[in-house]
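Researcher: Let's do a round of design. I'm pasting the structure tokens now; please hold your answer until I've finished.
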């Protein structure tokens, strides 16, 4: 074979090899897809203000892989308050702030901070800046009832971020459930002027049934071991910074004397 024919044959073979290598490289490259990075972030679960203060609950979203949340901090932009974040679940955190009067006058609050943890054993931090609606929570309930010598003592417990005025009681009734009979009932209203300060506390309302003209009293004491129900409809006014709101509540308590 002449040198020229040998050159032509080698050129054809090398060209075929190059084409095969190029085709394989293109097929391999087309089979590789870029990985999609799922980034965890922080969101607000809820924010409430009550008698114990402001409570912010946060949750971690898109927490894939071996992530462990350990804590962090969160600051409230409107008040400058800052608090440590405590874990209350694998991916949920909570921060508590002292009660401030302006919280009940806000519809939203700005929250910024940092969540700390580990990702496959390495330190991890997630910064956040959030705006969340704020809800006001007011709870009022009867904790205890005492009745003897026609004198009724009612222990009212409450958790409120705003002052409350108890204006009057309407048609209060105490029923002996064991005997299916009335202990007493009052037709009409009993004026009151009981002021409740913000926070978590108790107040006692004392009513002498013997001095109320519209009271119908069937017994001035309770029977040990009997079950009773006290119905207490009240008119209350919530004293907000810019407006007062009056509403009607019906509180009640079922209790057993001596139990």
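Researcher: That's everything. Go ahead.
Model: Designed sequence:
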């Amino acid at each position: 074979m002449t040198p020229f024919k040998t050159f032509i044959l080698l050129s054809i073979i090398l060209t075929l090899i190059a084409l095969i290598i190029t085709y394989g490289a293109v097929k391999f490259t087309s089979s590789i897809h870029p990985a999609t990075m799922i980034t965890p972030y922080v969101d607000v679960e809820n924010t409430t203000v009550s008698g114990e203060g402001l409570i912010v609950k946060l949750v971690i979203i898109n927490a894939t892989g071996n992530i462990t949340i350990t804590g962090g901090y969160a600051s409230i932009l409107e008040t400058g308050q800052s608090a440590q974040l405590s874990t209350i679940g694998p991916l949920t955190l909570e921060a508590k702030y002292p009660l401030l009067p302006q919280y009940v006058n806000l519809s939203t609050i700005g929250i910024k901070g940092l969540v700390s943890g580990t990702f496959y054993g390495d330190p991890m931090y997630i910064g956040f800046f959030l705006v969340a609606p704020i809800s006001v929570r007011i709870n009022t309930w009867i904790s205890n009832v005492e009745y003897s010598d026609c004198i009724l003592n009612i222990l009212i417990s409450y958790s409120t971020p705003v002052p409350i005025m108890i204006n009057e009681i309407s048609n209060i009734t105490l029923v002996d459930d064991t005997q299916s009979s009335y202990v007493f009932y009052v037709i009409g209203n009993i004026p009151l002027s009981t002021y409740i300060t913000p926070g978590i506390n108790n107040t006692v309302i004392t009513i002498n049934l013997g001095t109320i003209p519209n009271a119908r009293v069937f017994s001035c004491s309770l029977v040990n071991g009997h079950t009773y129900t006290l119905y207490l409809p009240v008119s209350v006014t919530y004293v907000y910074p810019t407006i007062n709101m009056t509403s009607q509540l019906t509180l009640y308590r079922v209790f057993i004397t001596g139990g």
